[in-house]
Amino acid sequence: MTTLDVYKDWLGIPEGARPPNHYELLRLVKFQDDPEKIRANYKKLNAHVRKYASGQYSIRSQELLNELAKAMLCLTDPAAKREYDESLGRVFTEESGSAGPRSLGRILEERGVITHPQAKEAEDFAEARGLTLRDAVVQMKFTDATTAAQALAEELGRSFIDLADVTPDDDVLDQVPRSTVKRHSILPLFIDDDTLLIACVNEPDQELEDELRLRFELPMRPVIATPLAINQGIAKYYAAGLRDETAADAAFKAKGGIKAKGKVRKKRVPFKKLSPEEQYERTQYGYIIMCWGAVGSVIIDQFILKGRLIPWGTGNSIFNSFPFDQFLLSFFVPWLVIWWVIKVYWK
After folding, report:
1. Taking the complete model, does pTM exceed 0.85, yes or no?
2. Are 4 and 18 in contact (CB under 8 A)?
3. Pairing relation of β-strands 259-260 and 263-264?
């Protein structure tokens, strides 16, 4: 019996490394940088694989659809793509004169979706009604929700996902209760390369990031979807009785997540599970703690204790010739602080 090779039989990828890299999987030239080309190939392959969604290959078909989605989401997220390309050996040269981030309105103008006067009108409309610009251009019927969400994703430097193309991982959905997904308008998707992918309406806040990091003990990467798609996904995957929220909350509390007054008490995340930016930040805080351990102990010794802790010693005693206790904390505290930072805080 011949073993099915979906990469070769369904996608036409020649024999070789399995699974193939993201560019081979999406049938792209290596290091393709055009996000529109990446999305176009993804859409074409997604539609093709869906032909096998029923029958004996339904499970393998869905697995491959999610593989395609993960590859597309990685290659359309600027930061994730750069890191992935570097892992494949690509060397980037620093570019000068970067245009910097663009606003959603500017992006829609450049795409010819709206005019400059319409962008200004939408900004005024949003400000007057307390809306986001994304919601304003949709309500004013300047564009549709999908185009607006794609522009928002580009503004934020995130990927856009059509939730109709993917099926979230049940194990991931089970770990996040309905109350959390409703409160933050999110839909957990799956774990890719030790990173949790979450579909969001907007950029997630720190409270959500803290809670999800505690639940999964992994960093998260948000991707943007339309509000309607998020709500439909919640209704579909969190229907009454479908998820055991008691188990999810019990597991959350077991990891140290205790909700109080609507906030999550954070548990310290191991250093190796932090993102590079967070590792750098914790490293810098560690140096600050060590410096203050040394400076603080000297200040207390010299200006508060002033050598008065050890009153004994007379005549030619060493304590009369040298005020040992005036440097008591300075001798021991800095080394204890350094040990704690290296052995505990940086672990």
Report:
1. no
2. no
3. antiparallel
